[in-house]
Design goal:
The structure holds two protein chains of two kinds. By secondary structure, chain A is of the alpha+beta class. In chain A, about 20% of the residues lie in helices and about 25% in strands. In chain A, a hairpin with a 3-residue loop joins strand 6 and strand 7.
Chain lengths: ~120, ~400
């Protein structure tokens, strides 16, 4: 039996904004890994590869075509629960995004606009 | 005195252009078709946006969450995605309509062809965003939009039968579908959701905390109140001038004609200038709203305050949305027609973005002592009911009236 409090935490965590140790926004909690009995949160799952499983089956197929098949390490990441520092209005991580492979989409080197003059 | 001025300037800047192309089009048409009869629908819309903006500003200041953050949290990924896709489509139509509006005004002011000005307008907006900080962008369009007070002066110059005007504030339901279509249109034009999405994200851009709640309330009441006064004035001047002679305004230039009638060339120039700033501000707000929504939903870094280096995806998406707006505005579809569709469909999608904000604003676990009190809860749910009714009525009325064409 899960206690009410635990279900509440999962409900509150899912879809929450994640920030790294510098306060950068680096993604959202797209899914949660639970293990054991009674279940414990063991990791946060992040990345667009997880979007299809958040959708009804008819829409998932289309979503998988857009976001690509779920590939761990590239479009889906597993952030172990130990990396979570603090839960406030965001999920704050202990490390910088780079160290966890997060926030690569906002890497300025990947974007021409990162070199725009209005910084 | 100095503090009052400072507060006033802050409010003016926060609300930006007060009116957008949807307000201009629907209020002028409503006046021409039904004289003062739809004034009450303007008031209904102004109160609605005040309630919605106050709640989302408060949620942003207290919990640090802008609207699409709240939507993803409260509605989850699936329904949130529906809200995102619908809002983005409507925002892009709005961006196109506002860009088209800028181009029409420039065409009238400078006497050169429309097609030249859409791209020019977009480039000018990119430069403004590039050169100015967030607060500066808001101030330009906020202060410039004050030129539209020439419409209020025109009302007093026309000196209409005030008894008739007062009668227009009493809600009345005509059974004609066209009248009901305009009730929906005037209400929806006043309560365009992008304004609130922009406003709540702006609160984060400016680093609001609980200290800013008083400012938030003043913005919601006075800031949107000023917009309401201008919208009411537009209905009156149009009703006074166009209704008796049966003119049906079908382009943006007609909106400025009553001011020319009252004050000659000066009136016309002030009105066109005011329209330019309002529509320009709305182009920025709606395109930013589209990028804010996308970035917040997906958890990207976002904000003008971060700059393109720290928030490249946000910046890139903004440029792409602006480019799509240019393409739609250049497609040859009349901007007034694009406006009508963006306004009517915005009310259809409104419940999806309004409800999560209402739920979070009333949730003590998010908002602690700043959760909705009794009055805010009552008004919040009352407006939710109004919005749902109008959302359900919008599309049938659009079809029955052939897009307001009668």
């Amino acid at each position: 039996m899960r206690s009410k409090g635990e279900i509440y935490v999962v409900h509150r965590l899912l879809d929450e904004q994640i920030c790294d140790s510098d306060g950068r926004r680096v993604g959202r909690v797209d899914d949660i890994e639970l293990r054991g009995s009674p279940p414990r949160i063991t990791a946060l799952l992040v990345g667009e590869g997880l979007y299809p499983r958040r959708l009804p089956r008819w829409a998932a197929r289309l979503a998988r075509r857009i976001s690509g098949p779920e590939t761990w390490g590239s479009n889906a990441l597993r952030i172990p629960w130990e990396e979570v520092d603090e839960l406030s209005s965001t999920v704050k991580l202990r490390k910088k995004a780079e160290d966890l492979g997060l926030g690569m989409g906002d890497d300025p080197r990947r974007w021409i606009v990162g070199r725009l003059p209005w910084n | 005195m100095k503090t009052i001025l400072k507060i006033a300037l802050g409010i003016i800047a926060a609300i930006g252009g007060f009116l957008d192309i949807g307000d201009l089009v629907f209020t002028t048409q409503a006046g021409a078709l039904f004289r003062y009869d739809l004034l009450w629908a303007v008031v209904l819309g102004v109160l609605g946006i005040g309630v919605y903006a106050e709640m989302s500003g408060r949620v942003a200041a207290v919990s640090g969450r802008p609207v699409f953050d709240v939507i993803r949290m409260r509605m989850g990924f699936g329904i949130g995605l529906v809200a995102l896709v619908a809002s983005t489509a409507i925002n892009l139509l709005t961006v196109a309509a506002e860009l088209g509006g800028i181009a029409i005004v420039l065409e009238l002011l400078l006497d050169a062809p429309y097609s030249m000005f859409v791209v020019t307008a977009a480039i000018a907006l990119v430069l403004i965003v590039a050169l100015l900080p967030f607060g500066g962008i808001e101030r330009i369009f906020g202060y410039g939009g004050l030129l539209l007070f020439v419409v209020v002066a025109t009302v007093f110059h026309q000196n209409p039968d005030w008894g008739d005007v007062a009668h227009g504030f009493v809600p009345s339901l005509d059974s004609s579908a066209l009248y009901l279509y305009f009730v929906v249109g005037v209400f929806a034009a006043t309560l365009m959701p992008y304004e609130v999405h922009f406003y709540s994200s702006g609160a984060i851009e400016e680093g609001w905390t609980e200290q800013n709640l008083k400012e938030n309330r003043l913005n919601a009441i006075l800031g949107y109140g000023i917009g309401g006064i201008l919208a009411v004035a537009l209905v009156i001047v149009s009703g006074y001038l166009f209704h008796p002679i049966g003119v049906e305004p079908s382009d943006l230039g007609t909106v400025a004609l009553p001011m020319q009638g009252a004050f000659g060339e000066t009136g016309l120039l002030l009105a066109l200038g005011g329209i330019l700033f309002c529509v320009g501000g709305a182009a920025i707000d709606s395109s930013f709203a589209a990028s804010y929504n996308l970035a917040q939903f997906l958890g990207w870094e976002w904000g003008r305050y971060q700059g393109p280096r720290k928030a490249p995806r946000f910046t890139a998406s903004w440029l792409v949305f602006l480019a799509i707006g240019v393409a739609v505005a250049q497609s040859g579809i009349n901007p007034v027609e694009i406006t009508e569709y963006s306004v009517v469909f915005s009310v259809v999608a409104l419940p999806l973005t309004y409800l999560p904000v209402l739920l979070i604003a009333g949730d003590r676990s998010f908002m602690s002592d700043f959760a909705n009190g009794r009055i805010a809860t009552f008004l919040g749910w009352l407006y939710f009911a109004v919005i749902v009714v109008l959302a359900l009525a919008a599309v049938p009325l659009l079809l029955i009236t052939n897009g307001g064409g009668g």
